[in-house]
Each structure stands twice: as structure tokens, then as C-alpha cells.
């Protein structure tokens, strides 16, 4: 049985301009849902001379349409890029294959 006990926000990138006409990137809320967040793996790498960690996660939510790669998940203070959206085959849940943004 899947336990959806974490509250997450799913967000979409939006582009606009500021008062000076400079490009401005913001994120807008698509949905606030309950989820099961599971970290699948983690690796340590060097990025620009500093240690960085790469964490992959599977985030299961109830079935819903309109989600795709390119959106992001906000879970507490953690940000995850959605890499793929996988249906469960039973039209009950979908799994978001994610990578934590460091």
C-alpha cells in the first residue's frame, strides 16, 4: 500500500520581464498534492571544485494529467527537477522520476 504522507508543490517555470525590461524567471504553482517521496540513490561528485551531491528520487502521487518533464517539485527546502512522468498502469498513481537540485 502506498502512503502519501508528504505535502509537495509541483511548479512550472514562467518567464517575464522586470521593470527594466530584463528577463525574469519565476515558478508558478501547478498543484499542491500529497506524495510518497523515496530517495533511490545518491552520489558525490566534484562540481566547479566543490563537492556536490546528486540525489535521484521517485515521487509517487495520485493520478493526474498535465504533468511532464521540465516541471519541478518543492518538498520542504528541497527542489527536484522532474525528469520523467511514469504511469502505474492501473490509473491510480504516477511516479515522478526526479533529480534533486543542489
Mean pLDDT across the residues is 88
Q: N- to C-terminal separation?
A: 31 Å
DSSP strand content: over 45%
Q: Point out poorly predicted stretches.
A: none
Extended strand count: 6
Helix count, DSSP H or I runs of 4 or more residues: 0
Strand order, biggest sheet? Answer: 1-2-3-6-5-4
What is the 3D form? globular
Radius of gyration: 15 Å
Helix fraction by DSSP (H/I, runs of at least 4): under 10%
Strand-pairing-aware structural class: mainly beta
Largest sheet: 6 strands, antiparallel, barrel
Q: Oligomer, anyone? A: single chain
Helix and strand pattern: EEEEEE
Protein model, in words:
With 102 residues, the protein is mainly β. 0% of the residues lie in helices and 71% in strands. The chain contains no helices and 6 strands.
Topology, pairings included?
Layout: E1 6-17, E2 23-47, E3 50-62, E4 72-75, E5 78-87, E6 93-100
Antiparallel strand pairs: 1-2, 1-4, 2-3, 3-6, 4-5, 5-6
Gist of the model:
The chain is mainly beta and 102 residues long. Helices cover 0% and strands 71% of the residues.
From the structure above, extract its key features.
globular, mainly beta
Amino acid at each position: 500500500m502506498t502512503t502519501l504522507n508528504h505535502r509537495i508543490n509541483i511548479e512550472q517555470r514562467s518567464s517575464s520581464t522586470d521593470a527594466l525590461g530584463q528577463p525574469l524567471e519565476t515558478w508558478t504553482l501547478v498543484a499542491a498534492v500529497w506524495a510518497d517521496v523515496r530517495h533511490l540513490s545518491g552520489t558525490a561528485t566534484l562540481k566547479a571544485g566543490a563537492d556536490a551531491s546528486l540525489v535521484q528520487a521517485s515521487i509517487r502521487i495520485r493520478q493526474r494529467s498535465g504533468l511532464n518533464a521540465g516541471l519541478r517539485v518543492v518538498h520542504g527546502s528541497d527542489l527536484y527537477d522532474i525528469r520523467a512522468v511514469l504511469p502505474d498502469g492501473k490509473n491510480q498513481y504516477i511516479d515522478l522520476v526526479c533529480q534533486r537540485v543542489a
